[in-house]
Each structure stands twice: as structure tokens, then as C-alpha cells.
Design goal:
Blueprint: E1 13-19, E2 22-30, E3 35-37, E4 40-41, H1 42-45, H2 49-62, E5 68-75, H3 79-97, H4 102-107, H5 115-131, E6 145-150, E7 153-158
Parallel strand pairs: 3-5
Antiparallel strand pairs: 1-2, 2-5, 3-4, 6-7
Helix pairs in contact: 2-3
Length: about 160
């Protein structure tokens, strides 16, 4: 089901996005291709081409680099984290601007906050739940060894 565009009275659509510790708010409107980050042109804010590619990827995927004016406010995190947050916020704002762009964004996994972070969180949570008792058993009364549980099973560790 395709939703209606969510634009304000000036024809702009905005959305939040995040990556690692960085968060961004992107506002998109039809225009000439102006792209500012914290009121600074993109070329001055990001010094390397890789950072610019990450931030511009939603527009590159749409082949519409000159069709939108984008204003982004970003804070926190490192440079690549900020570029990823801008990418995520821009993709969401473009979908709010034109809901028919959602399949393209989903095809390029642009609407996912951070797949690596999500998988890591799920893995650590399940590992913690299953393996909380794996740290160390209590010291045995009779000798100088301690039983430890590892991924290979129980092992004896000398205590001397």
C-alpha cells in the first residue's frame, strides 16, 4: 500500500535518521540540487569523496542528484557515522516526499538504521542469555583447579 506524500505548506518533507552515535534530520524539497549540512555546503563539510558518496547515495540510487534541495542537521558520532546518518535520514525524507520511491530505497537497504548494529545487538543479547552461566564455576574444594566453560565445553584451569 502506497501512502500519501507527507509535505508541509512549503512543499518540504523531513525525516530523522541515525547511524552508530550520530543522528541527522534531513529536509527535502524539489529544487536545483543544493545540499547543505549544518548550513555548510556538502563539499566543505565532508573532505573525502567516500564520505560524500555515502551521504549522497539515496540520490545516486534515484539518479536524481540535481532534482532536490536538501538541508541536513547532523550531530554526534564520527565523520563516517554522520555520513551514514545523513544517508538514512535522506532516504526516509525522500520516501515521505514521494512514497513511490520506497521500493527503490528498500532495494538498496537504505531504510534500515544499521543492519550490522542490529545483528550485533541480537547476537550479543542471545549470547548473554544463553551463556551467562559460562563464566566460571566456583572454585572446587579439593584442588587448585577451576572449572571454566568455553565454547569447546568445560575445561580445567590451573589456579597456581
Amino acid at each position: 500500500m502506497i501512502n500519501m506524500p507527507q509535505r508541509d505548506a512549503q512543499g518540504r518533507a523531513g525525516a530523522y535518521g541515525g547511524r552508530k552515535n550520530a543522528s541527522a534530520y534531513a529536509r527535502v524539497k524539489a529544487g536545483t540540487g543544493r545540499f547543505t549540512v549544518n548550513r555548510v555546503p556538502l563539499a566543505y563539510y565532508f573532505s573525502t569523496v567516500e564520505e560524500r558518496k555515502v551521504a549522497l547515495f539515496p540520490l545516486i540510487a534515484l539518479e536524481a542528484c540535481g532534482g532536490f534541495d536538501v538541508d541536513v542537521h547532523v550531530q554526534g558520532g564520527g565523520v563516517m557515522g554522520q555520513a551514514g546518518a545523513i544517508r538514512n535520514a535522506l532516504a526516509r525524507a525522500l520516501v515521505k516526499f514521494d512514497p513511490y520511491l520506497k521500493p527503490v530505497m528498500k532495494r538498496h537497504n537504505l531504510l534500515v538504521v544499521s543492519l550490522e548494529l542490529w545483528m550485533c545487538t541480537v547476537h550479543l543479547w542471545s549470547w548473554h542469555c544463553i551463556h551467562t552461566h559460562w563464566l566460571f564455576a566456583e572454585r572446587q574444594q579439593d584442588g587448585g583447579t577451576q572449572e571454566a566453560w568455553t565454547t569447546q565445553g568445560p575445561q580445567e584451569i590451573p589456579m597456581g
